[in-house]
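Q: Here's a chain of 250 amino acids. Please give me its 3D structure as C-alpha cells.
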Amino acid sequence: MSDETTETTPFARHDGRTVDQLRPISLEPGIAPYADGSVICSFGDTRVICAAMIENKVPGWMQRQKVEGGWLTAEYNMLPYSTLTRKDRPSSRGRQDGRNIEIQRLIGRSLRACTDLKKLPGKTLWIDCDVLQADGGTRTASITGAWVAAQLAFAKLLEKGKIEENPLTDHLAAISVGVYRDTCLLDLCYVEDRDATVDANVVMTGTGEFVEVQSSGEEATYSREQLDELLALAAKGCAELVEAQKAAVS
C-alpha cells in the first residue's frame, strides 16, 4: 500500500493503519515455566519475552543503608537473531551495550513508579526482557510486558503466602508516538521510526498519569500543538494496552 495521500484521502500508513491505531497486540502469559511470571508481548512484528523472578535478598546498598522493603530491577537484551543482520551479544564484545543499559534503566524505574517496595520485604523482583524480533517499539513492548510478568509473579507470591499485599499500585503501559511525513502517528513500526522527524516514547499508568516522556526531534523541531497531539495519541494507546493487560492476567 502506498504512503502517498491526496487532498481527498486520509493519511495512509504503509501497513494500512489509521494514524491513531495500534499494531495488533498480543500478550501470551506462561511462556517461561521456570519463571515466577512470564509473557511474550507482541506489538505487530515486535516480539519480546518478559520474565519475572523473585530473589530472596536485596542489594547490598539497601542492607548497608538499612532501607526497608524490597527492590525491583530489570535487564534488557536484543537476541542476536532479533534483527535483519546479526547483533553481537554484549559478552562477545567484552562490554555492555549503552543502549541496552539505558533501556533497562527505563524499564526498572518505570515499574518502580507503580510498585510499593515496602510490600516486598527482603526480596528483589528481577525482570528480564529479551527481544525475539525487533520492528520498532521494543522498549515500550518491554515495559508493557514487564508489568504483566510482575503481576503474575506477585500473584504467585500472594497465593503461597510469601507476601501479604500486592506491591503493584496501578497498571503500567508504554507506547511510541512520532511525527512522520508531518503527521502525528501512534505506535511506530521500524520504517516509520527510522524516518520520523520526531520520536517519542511515553510511559503511563492505568489511571492516566505520566511516568516518563522521552521526546526528541531528529534534526528537526516540533510545536507545542504537535507535542499535545502526540501525548493525546499516547494516552489513547496506553489505555488500550491496559485493557489488553487486564485480559492477559485475568
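Q: Can you summarize the key feature?
A: The mean pLDDT is 93.
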